[in-house]
UniProtKB/TrEMBL annotation:
Organism classification: Archaea, Methanobacteriati, Methanobacteriota, Stenosarchaea group, Halobacteria
Domain Thioredoxin: 3-119
Listed Gene3D superfamilies: Glutaredoxin
Coiled coil: none
Name of the protein in question: Thioredoxin family protein
InterPro entries, A to Z: Thioredoxin-like_sf (IPR036249), Thioredoxin_domain (IPR013766)
């Protein structure tokens, strides 16, 4: 089920995040799994900009999976991936986790993940 909160923010300025977008593009073989909920305040504030960043980086829909959790933060993959907070984004390549964003970080999701992917 798609998260409505992943709909790209139409006023997000990709030019202001050109390095972030370039890093996401350079990792074109990565997949993104997003745990969140449309009822979640943090998801509503953070995911639209992340959706816009993925869109600006031309990340294919097939590489992005949205997983909606309930109010008890239960849903597919929660136990397997150790999801405690939402939004959480796990980036994988060839089935191996290469980056993770958890709700409590103090910078935007795309920026945080781009920094991890650059290391």
């Amino acid at each position: 089920m798609a998260l409505e909160t992943m709909a790209p923010n139409p006023v997000w300025d990709a030019d202001a995040y050109d390095e972030t977008v370039a890093t996401l593009q350079a990792n074109e073989d990565a997949t993104y799994t997003i745990w969140g909920a449309d009822w979640c305040k943090d998801c509503r504030s953070q995911l639209p900009n992340f959706g816009a960043a993925l869109d600006a980086a031309d990340i294919a829909d097939e590489q992005i999976e949205h997983i909606a959790v309930d109010r008890d933060k239960q849903g597919p993959g929660v136990e397997e991936y150790g999801i405690e907070y939402i939004p959480t984004v796990v980036v994988e390549r060839d089935g191996e986790e290469i980056a993770r964003f958890v709700e409590s970080e103090d910078i935007p999701i795309a920026v945080y993940l781009a920094e991890q992917l650059s290391e």
